[in-house]
Amino acid sequence: MLKTERSIIWTHMLTVLTGQLAAVLSGVVDTVVAGRYSNEALAALSVASALNISVIVSLIGVLNVLLPIYAEHRGAGRHHEVGKTLHQGLYLAMGLSIIAFLILMFPGWLLTLSQVPPHLIPDIERYLAIQAFMVPLFMLFRMYAALNQALGKPWFVTWLQVVILVLKIPLSFVLVGVYGLAGCAMASLIVTATGLGIGVYLIATHLDYKPFAVWRKLDSPNWIAIRRHLRLGLPAGLSQLVEITSFTLIALLVARLGITASAAHQIASTMAAMVFMLPISYGVAATARVSYWIGHGNPKLAAQLIRQTLSWGLVFSCTLGAVILLSRHWLATLFSSNPDVVALASTLLAFVAFYHVPDSLQIMGMFLLRCYRITLMPLIVYSIFLWGIGLGGGYYLAYGNTSTVFAQTPNAFWLTAIISLGIVAAWFSMALLQISNRRANPPCQPKVFV
Question: Which among 362, 285, 330 is positioned nearest to 5, based on CA atoms?
């Protein structure tokens, strides 16, 4: 049984990974296009994408708790509950989209607080204004993705993500020449709308969705269900906010070090985001199967799958880290022809190689903890270590202590990020093993003899 499940998870993972890589390559396209356009555009993109990702990913975290709920309903044979859950999720997505829209349309206070160089702000604001209109589309597309991943049909998402990438590449090059950095955002808006339209058509017409009663008259808001989702989703969303901002806010803090530092950091963060897709894909696939077996009433198999996931996650992350370390200079030259940017980016990519190992384990741990409805603990752990040691320690090394080799360099932030993620990865792994074993082997109730 475990061997069969491993095969299912790997097949699911590879399908999800293909789509995730296509999605992240859309961001890589923006980085390459902006880097070829000008160093200023690349530096502006570093800040703009950091803010955009922070807002969107954190709010999507509230919706991500729907994935294990869908999978658990499917495992328990409650097919119509899948459609009901999705309909209530639409109301959540609507409210979250409004919040994200307002933040991205009016980012001035965040840019001022972060001391972003004034000459970069106009490009950043134009980019984010266009991204604001893409938020509702992106939210709905992620809900479509979560539904298909939970139902064991990730290929319905993957091929759409590949189509989006194929359309975005030429469109970005054309529009950036006309509108500058804003052209990248316009290309993303157009292709995301196209992909979402195709996805909605599939849900309405494809026979595979009919048993789950997704395409029917929209249910009225069920405030009990929405509150239940929020109790799980808000801590999960805040956890992802802390997790992603511990990474993306580095771009804002590095921006004051100059264009070369920002451009190099954008290259390093883009590469980190690319390799991050493997553990995310594995985590999504494993979450779907673990939740399925929990709903099906087999917690022992769920516990075995968790141990297997953590073991293979460690193998994959060490392998990818070694590849990055050995090819870091060549990778840097793919993004920029500026020798100063390439030199600094090569150094940062060495940090990325070590950063990837704990980063992989912690994200898989966070996904799998949701199978057991654990979302508050990751929020507390993230807040203490990723913001406290990661961002706080990095800021101190870079700006508060001028006597070290890390002063006034982005290296400081990557070093403290590695340390903080290592602690979080160990914490989540131990918690997962404990809770899964406890559910698989509940304490025996004493017999009562009469």
Answer: 285
If you count them, how many residues does the chain have? Answer: 450
Q: Is residue 449 assigned to a domain?
A: no
Give the residue numbers spanning the domain of 173.
2-440
Percentage of residues in the chain with pLDDT exceeding 70?
Answer: 96
Asked if the structure places residue 56 within a domain, the reply is yes
Residue in the block written with tokens 């070093």: 415
Contact by Cβ (8 Å): 160, 198: yes
- Judge contact between 367 and 286, C-beta under 8 A: yes
Residue 445 lies inside a defined structural domain of this protein = no
Alpha helices in 223-338 (DSSP H): 223-255, 259-296, 299-326, 328-335
d(CA 366, CA 447): 37
Residue where the block lists tokens 């590879």: 14
Token representation of residue 350 = 């060495």
Handedness of CA 296, 297, 301, 303 (dihedral sign): positive
Residue type, 212: F
From CA 216, how far away is CA 341, in angstroms rounded?
53
The number of folded domains in the chain is 1
Is 59 within 8 Å of 279 (Cβ atoms)?
no
394 is written with which tokens?
């990095």
Burial bucket for residue 385 (CB in 10 Å: 0-12, 13-18, 19+): buried
Q: Is residue 447 part of a domain?
A: no
Check: CB of residue 259 under 8 Å from CB of residue 43. Answer: yes
Cα-only R_g, the chain: 22
Q: How far apart are CA 84 and CA 218, in angstroms?
A: 9
Token pair, residue 417, equals 């990020």
Whether the Cβ atoms of residue 104 and residue 55 lie closer than 8 Å to each other: yes
Q: Characterize 37-47 residue by residue with b for buried, 16 or more Cβ atoms within 10 angstroms of its Cβ, and e for exposed.
A: bebbbbbbbbb
Which residue matches tokens 């296509």?
Answer: 22
User: pLDDT tens digits, residue range 38-97?
Assistant: 777 777 887 788 788 778 877 877 887 788 888 888 888 888 888 888 898 888 888 888
Whole-number Cα distances in Å, 218 to 83, 156, 214, 280 = 10, 22, 9, 31
Name residue, tokens 């469109």.
171
Band (120; pLDDT cuts 50, 70, 90)? confident
| Nearest by Cα to 293 from 178, 436, 391 | 436
What 3-state class would DSSP assign to 222? coil
Higher pLDDT, 285 or 245: 285
Structure tokens at 100: 């994200």
